[in-house]
Amino acid sequence: MLFGKRERAICRILVVEDEPLVAFDNEYRLADAGYEVVATVDNLVDALRVIETEALDLVLSDVRLSGEGDGIDVARAAAAKGVPVLFVTGNCPEEAQSLAVGCLAKPYTDKELKAALDVLDRKLSGEEVKKVPGGLSLYAKAGAKPD
């Protein structure tokens, strides 16, 4: 594409985070970068409701959540709907590799989050990703949006 921005594959994001400050920061950072935050929730039940009822392009989820269930459960539900997941956590479980498109290590900066989303957007659009920002691990198969 010549001049201008290419169309994003990721526009509508569900944030699943149990730390209020991190959730607030993510909401602000994502909105500031032009993403639509469909909802921000802190538990599995609310995440499942949003996944079932909303059109989503990405779920940004911590692994640890409030109440019953965790981010792995969220990722399973999202995968069943064909919605890719990016885990944001201090310790990404091995199981994440089969459920998510990647994992962004906490703590991360605004710049690192935006760079990670840009790389994921390119990957989900079918582009080859040559450079991955620090703190981001990409996984081969998982979470790719269905055609």
TrEMBL record:
SMART domains membership: REC (SM00448)
UniProt-listed Pfam families: Response_reg (PF00072)
Modified residues (4-aspartylphosphate): 62
Keywords for the protein's UniProt record, in alphabetical order: Phosphoprotein
Keyword Transmembrane helix attributed: no
Coiled-coil positions: none
Entry-linked SUPFAM superfamilies: CheY-like
The keyword Amino-acid biosynthesis belongs to this UniProt entry's keyword annotation: no
Domain Response regulatory, residue spans: 12-121
Matches recorded under PROSITE patterns: RESPONSE_REGULATORY
InterPro entries given in the database record: Bact_response_regulator, CheY-like_superfamily, Sig_transdc_resp-reg_receiver
Example GO biological process: phosphorelay signal transduction system
Domain of life of the organism encoding this protein: Bacteria
Protein name: Response regulator
